[in-house]
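S.,

Sequence below, as promised.
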Amino acid sequence: MYSNDTPSWKKVLSVFELNSAIRDLLEEGFAFVRVQGEVSRISAPASGHLYFNLVDEQAQIRAVVWRASKARLSHHPREGEEVLITGRISVFAPRGEYQIIVDALTPKGAGSEREKLLQLHRQLEQEGLFDPQRKRPLPYLPHVIGVATSESGAALQDIIRVLESRNPDFHLLLAPCQVQGSEAPQAIVQALRALNADGRAQVIICGRGGGSAEDLACFNSEQVVRAIAASAIPVVSAVGHEVDTTLADLAADLRAATPSQAAELIMPERLALAQETTALALRLQRAMHQQLHNQQRRVQQASQRLLHPSRRLDQARLRCDELQMRLQGVLERLLPQQQQRLRRATNTLHHWATGPSLPRQRQQLKQQQHRAHTAMLYQLRQWQSRLHSAQLQLIALSPLQVLERGYAIVRDNQGSVLRDAQAAPLESTLTITLAKGTLAARVTQRKP
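The prediction came back faster than expected:
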């Protein structure tokens, strides 16, 4: 082991340590590089990675595209093709080999086209054509579907095949147009305008099958993007494969990776619809049963808490009887006590009857008798007052007392008490309960 202060020429390094140190220097010093050269000796093993050499007239360097980066490439290199690579330098220490890890790859001369595309993207984005808020939902189970694509391409056949397999009850309006070449943008715009002018289509599929960047260039055309954004009918873009994203995809109301997927997105499957309908019916039935059960339980609980007036009157009578019995018990307990006090006073008076303090004892006896009589009267008045209050409460709670004052209870033919004149239908029969007896009446007129 050597300290960091040891001069490098005195250190003894292993081969791996030397390669690791070189790797650190290269990866730190060349974290971002752009290299132009010719593609040679392409290798695509089963791992999904891509290996090739990048050469010029004087040198060559190995390059690798990892599988995740390969899926994002808009252009895949071909043998002998001149390309521009963006990436970073990495060293494989076990073999002492350095290589370029490729992050982006474009053909030579494509840089200016790419810049134009990015500039158009920024312009349209600033105008709000890619704003998610302007995207409209697709109609559910459309009957008329418009398609803007080549009438001889595989995309149209894929769309028809998927639609017929999912739900054959549809009508397809085809607006044939070129989807490749210099005249394709204008043809696509005319097809979209024709479908909008016809007005029968509920949704439009616009696209084609996969292809190279040059094949899909028409769907990056400004006039095509603006035509999609201006369509009064929702548009589903179906351009290329999942790795291909065009400006038309961003402007459309919904993007599908392929024409087949576009057909799947706009047309629900008949079997799935039937299963969903059955599931919803079962959920509705369960919800109705549960709601009915809850309402029945609430009615039962309310009926258990609701007491008939006669039962409330019986409870009040029982309470009154209980208070009266308690009063009687208190009186029975107090009377012997007062009688005993009276006897003690009488005995004391007799004991002192012949003594010199008789007049004074007589006076005390009179006072005690008076206090005992006063206490008994006071206690008796208190219990009589409580008894009278209980009787008044009993009378106030009795519905018969309300009827005695001239009021009446009106019930409909179901026996329910009416509180609103509007609840009694005309010509219906009512029962009126008075303080004495009942009356049967018929509704001939209602007043608010």
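The chain has twelve helices and 13 strands.

Coffee later?
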